[in-house]
Amino acid sequence: MSRKQAFHNIRYVADTTGIEESRIRFFESEFADVFSASGLNTASRYYNKRRIELLRTLHRLVFEEGRNTEEARAAVLPAPLDSQRTPTVIAVTSGKGGVGKTTVAVNLAVTAAQLGYRTLLVDADFGLPNAHVLAGVTPARTLMDVVCGDAAVEDAISEGPAGIGIVCGCSGIAELANLDRRLTAYVGREVLRVAPSFDCVFFDTAAGISEHVIRFLELAHRIVVVATPSIASTLDAYSLLKVACRTHVPGQLGILLNLVTTAEEARSVFDRISGCARRFLGTAPAYLGCLMKDPAIENANQRRYPFVLAEPGSPGAARLAAAAAGLLPPGPASAAPQEARRRDHPAEAETVQPLGATP
Prior knowledge:
This protein has 359 residues and is of the alpha/beta class. It has helices spanning 10-17, 21-30, 32-37, 49-64, 69-76, 101-114, 131-135, 143-147, 174-177, 181-194, 211-217, 231-246, 263-281, 295-302, 307-310, 315-327, 336-344, and strands at residues 88-93, 119-124, 157-159, 165-167, 200-205, 222-227, 252-260, 286-292.
């Protein structure tokens, strides 16, 4: 069945469920908050599987089990998260595409797993997702299945390298690229619902400053802005910082430089971006380190294998471990793997700025 065939009008829903159209209208009016919390737009004339299933559930609760509206509402609204088990949420983003953002996101997630953290990576680039490509994962289900109601988000988690969980996007699907605000919020809530099963959650966002990107940045405790020395990238990184500040994104901001030739070049680029942010935005992003231009990284990407696994003793792996140390909270992992990398490559294990304590 195609995605278009999965959407039906109200007459079809009434005929297949046995729920009268007037009752359908009643449920969608009386339980508008429930539909909204589930990312469903009751103003739409078209019904997907999730919307139909919610109608079935409400009909059963009210007309078969005899529950009042408040009891039915309590039965179907998502349970509040246990704040004591909230993991660290890290968004990896960039102002410009083509700067290696997804390479950083995938390899940071794998590094976290190597250090002992239960890690989830969510490809939140709804337009052109490719985290699964770089991770070497062929998913059975994707975010498209979640949005269309064919799967819960936990059913869309695939096993990735080093044991990470990964929720993959679906490339070239206009419905995902054009998600409205309600569905974007729904995806975010669904991810946070399963997040307590993990120690850290990484969002690999789309590039740029669209509303979709900002929505995911708002969920993060730490925000990694990936930039390169190119003037276009540095300007766009600053623009992203400006939008994040003006929209009062609560997460702590940090910058990671990619595709640099020397550590000195990285520091110089960071100082330019950070200096403008301090002067005009009143914020001070942290320095999260850098990754050099390295053919081994591109070779690993071409092989669909994270470079921190392909080249575990490389300077790039040591630098990414140092960056991860600035992002991850004190947790279940021993520092031994990270310290071993620093001993092997002392010149590469530069000091980076931590982004605060555990949220």
